[in-house]
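Subject: sequence -> structure tokens, single chain

Hey, anyone have a minute? Need the predicted structure for the following. Not urgent.
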Amino acid sequence: MARLPASKPDEGPWVLRDYALIADGERGALIGPRGQMAWLCAPTWHSGSVFSGLLGGPGEFRVCPSDAWNVWGGYYEDGTLIRVSRWVTADCVISCREALAVPAEADRVVVLRQLRAVRGDARVRVSLDVRGDFGRHRMTEVHHGAGAWRARTGQLYVRFTGADDARPGPGEGLHTELCLREGDVHDLVLEISARPGEASLAPRSLWEATERWWKDAVPDCAHTAAPRDTRMAYAVLQGMTSATGGMAAAATTSLPERADTGRDYDYRYAWIRDQCYAGIAVAAHGPHPLLDRAVRFVSERILQDGANLSPAYTVNGDPLPGERPLPLVGYPGGSDRTGNRAGRQFQLDVFGEALQLFAAAADHGRLDTKAAEAARIAAEAVAERWTEPDAGIWELEQRWWAHSRLCCVVGLRDFARVFGTSVSSEWSRLADRILDATRARCLHPDGYWQRAADHSGLEAALLLPLARGAVDPRDPSFARTRSMVMRHLAEDGYVYRFQQDEGKPLGEAEGAFLLCGFTMALAAHAEGRDIEATRWFERTRSSCGPSGLFAEEYDIAQRQLRGNLPQSFVHALLLECSARLGPSDDNHG
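Reply:
Had a minute. Here:
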């Protein structure tokens, strides 16, 4: 397949920690430190990208000082995904406030960028080159009228305001330079839509609506263990969750977990497990619309597919597309692919996670009759399929994974506890039967829970069902498993999933897995070791980039993020830990 040239072939990508995210629930954009919008898929998460610079492809929306001699920084307005980028040059200070306008529409994205000359007069370069379908389509029919630029790119329609003096380049979009006096504010508004745009693009009203939406979307979190980071976690989860209820696992595809290993995947879809983690995390803090959305999305999928539930769907609830290559260079060390094979797997644990989610919602009185029916179907699916080998949480080969069974034990017990029906004792007995069988097959002679019936290795993911009550915290297997994970899968306060290559250092195969660091904190908390739990929590939450975003993995030696960005379930587990480790009067978990 022929590769498409990058918009700026002389400029490579940045390390992942340097990118920031703006998102509106239906899609998200990554912004680099030089003001380049390096990644955006439109109109929705799993659509083709219109800005592909992150993977070496064409298309960008760049706003940066004309003076290349500058240093950059930035921050989020607290409790929002409104980003303020900032540059200091030799003569001036420039800021750019940026967001995706909300409330959002599924087939239309509106990008807001507001420039301000903070100190001194400023000159700012603006470039726009929208390239639909992963860069395959150039901007066509480019013309200006009625105060806006209009264009097409493939099947998408483009409108752009605030750059009346821009000039088209030869096949390279629109370019201009803005001159701002000290104190001046200048708005740029970009609309990319599946239909011709007619709605007002007045920046003031769009900003006001966006500010109101974020104020209502994120709770205060004042009594959690880390209030500001917890509000940030809420903001990320809000920004990643569609109006359908589906939460994208990440905004990106093909960012490598480890260079040149082939472990780079498309995460722009909604994993049932991740959705449950997010809902359970929110429930630990208190009732919130994100909990309702998670319950709705998961229950609809179970009612639709029953015991054949897929591990992942598009955020619209459709089946995942198969994998195919893209005409892009790819992020260094990674590949370039779209689609995901996980949709065809059987992963038993998702039924257990769904039952835990439904029980958490019921505890807050947020479970309707359709979700209660979905819970019954999920419990019956466990009864039908728990003896079958499955691909497990890490989507590996079919095995009798201990983690999958213990998740179902927790889910069945939660189901029996909150529903209190005449059949609740039946589900409790099934949970006991699964636990007994798993103990017989997966409890190592040394007293710890091993990965699978035929695999005696350690598995950090087991800490989560243990923390949630698969066994009593006083059961010797709980402390023994946590001790073994600390001894063999932890390094410098971070936790790895499992030993990838026997005899090699943990960090040579992959990064520390941030989900597992937070589950270690939850496990210590379940054992009543709150000081230790706080240490694990604080160490793991230090592994974000300057923007506060977490990826899936963290390279301890290089202090770099690895994998797709941002990883929603990591932000979810930070939220849950912060809620559970906060003051007891605010702990609803």
